[in-house]
From TrEMBL:
Stated family: Belongs to the peptidase M20A family.
Protein name per the record: Peptidase M20
GO biological process: one example: proteolysis
InterPro entries on file: Bact_exopeptidase_dim_dom (IPR036264), Pept_M20A (IPR047177), Peptidase_M20 (IPR002933), Peptidase_M20_dimer (IPR011650)
Pfam families: M20_dimer (PF07687), Peptidase_M20 (PF01546)
Keyword Phosphoprotein appears in the UniProt entry: no
UniProt entry keywords in alphabetical sequence: Hydrolase, Metal-binding, Protease, Zinc
Keyword Lipoprotein tagged: no
Domain called Peptidase M20 dimerisation: residue spans: 240-387
One Gene Ontology term of the molecular function aspect: peptidase activity
SUPFAM superfamilies given in the database record: Bacterial exopeptidase dimerisation domain, Zn-dependent exopeptidases
Amino acid sequence: MPQPAVSILLLLLALLLVLAAVLLVRAARFRPDAADLAPHAGGGEPIPVDADAAAGRLSQLIRKRTVSSREPSSADRAEFRSLLDLLPDLYPAAHRALEREIVNGRTLLYRWQGAEPEAPTVLMSHFDVVPAEEEGWLHPPFSGEIADGRVWGRGAIDTKGTLVCILEAVEQLVASGFKPKRDIYLSFCDDEEIAGDGAPTHVRLLQERGIRPGLVVDEGGAVVENIFPGVRGPIAVVGVAEKGVSDFELVVRGAGGHASAPPRLGPAFRLARAIQRLERRPPKPFFPPPTLDMLDTLGRRSSFGYRILFANLWLLRPLLARLFHRLSPETRALSSTTIAVTTLQGSPAANVLPAEAKAGANVRVAVGETAAGVAARMRRAIADDAVELRIVRAGDPSPVSTTREEPYRIVAAAIRGTYPEAAVTPYVMLGGSDSRHFAAVWPYVYRFTPYELSREERETIHAANESLPIRKLGKGIEFYIRLIRSV
């Protein structure tokens, strides 16, 4: 081999060795911050709560069939009114101490007056639920059955259980003589599942009264395990933003007619080809800032092999983003906008050509992108002027709440006090919540459901056999007691 070639080869080898050494040293130093490992909010000492009594009250709320519907005539408003009437009986001390306002005759806004009115905390939940058929349930979905150490029924997790945890915490604190340092508001709405006007009305009402919350906490992430590569043990994921939720429609029109003499490139074919092109050219993977924060937080707790990746995002970020895009549906959703074709419509009969073929697509817009930008990219991918793409509902991502100021630290401390073994991390919520209306006007909005939830339990949300263990309900009450004491 000529001398110059040998020199170049040795130089390249030396550079590779230096690069490998840099990667390994950075990974060795990539450890959790001391602040993340210190005890918080009582050092994890349990707070006595009566979880069994709380389970009985949750059971009563589940028996109220507060099923929301976009068709006003389909919702049984008597069930909603019955739930509103029941709450003062279940929580008498809280209702004596707090001001209760029924907004628009449907939703609840409570004020617990503190020593100071500035920068109040808003705790959110919703008491409407999605429909449930009895088939496939071990216990009827609106029975509120207490069996096998669990409360069964629609809303046990999403989110009548959360409502109970909040009110149980308030009831216990009021009975003990506790007075909050700042005002606390409870915002409970009846139409979250249909993206209704309950939460927007509460936001407008607070704005009109000159109230500017210093912290808002709504449903969101939970304490989970086995969701992040290389990390063992529980992880508490706190939503600091939400992906945008948009609905698109693809439409192709034609002459219709009898199926015995089909034309080439008819509406159904063009629509199918458009969907296939979207599948072949998905949105590009990338990590928005909140996801980078999550990778940093959890990467420090991962096994050494994974720490090599997460400690060196300065070099490996594009590679890791592509890996996340392929690893699983969940990691793909964390690293890109997603497009899911959910509805198809064509001819009403097998022997009739469709005069119009339509598909509906639910698009979850990643932080850093917009619905309009995604639509433009989809049109380029489809590359067919005969396919009309229109935005039925445009929903951009929410603003991102900081993790570097006191409101986030308060939430994280309450989590660590309740779940000392859990690593607390920010993340971007894949679903939507009422809190996006608060995040549009106020900066400190966080999304956390205070339970340890297994994959099986998470999969029952909006599905059969939704249920919540009584022990976990008790931990949720502990979380809110710690949170309320700290704000």
